[in-house]
Amino acid sequence: MSTEYETLLDRAYNKLPETVKEHSRFVTPKVVALIQGKTTFLKNLGEISKAVNREPDAIAKYLIREFGTSGTYDSQHLSMKGQFRQNQIQEKFETYLAQYVICPDCGRPDTKIMQERRISFLKCEACGSRHPLAAIKATVPKDETKKIAVGDEVTVQITRTGKRGDGMALLGQYVVFVTNAREGQRVRAKITGIQGTRLFANAVEILK
Ligand SMILES: [Zn+2]
Is the per-residue pLDDT at 21 higher than 60? Predict the structure, then answer.
């Protein structure tokens, strides 16, 4: 294994503050959507907003803008003109989380958006880090987050053990944390969560 690879894994892991390494990880909320005729209804806008501690208004506006459509919403529901599948909405929602909610340093959602001299910052209450929102966007290219989705299966080589016993592997720009996998194993794993450039997965098959 190359030193460069080791360094990447080290860096990714050491970025996680102790408190985060210990605590249970954030589970990305699932959108519930329904197409009726030429309209798409997001039925749990209220719930997902509450789960990520953002205003329904902000999420609704983001989705409407991203889909390039028009829509109406209240604190619980959103309806958008056009037919959008639930997994398309989920993808956009996860991009929203990566840009406006998830701390790029520790992967926790315990953040606030703060304004300072016309610059918006994402301030993390879990690890204390602070990032200008514009900079976070730049580090999460949309096409990269689209490539891998929850439920996808990937094959990775586990090259290290995380402190919680997870197997760790690198996959392109992502660091993958695989439960039920050990260092040295090559596994097929199913993605169960995505946080920025961190993927969480369960091993479904040990290949060797
Ligand atoms: Zn943080």
Answer: no
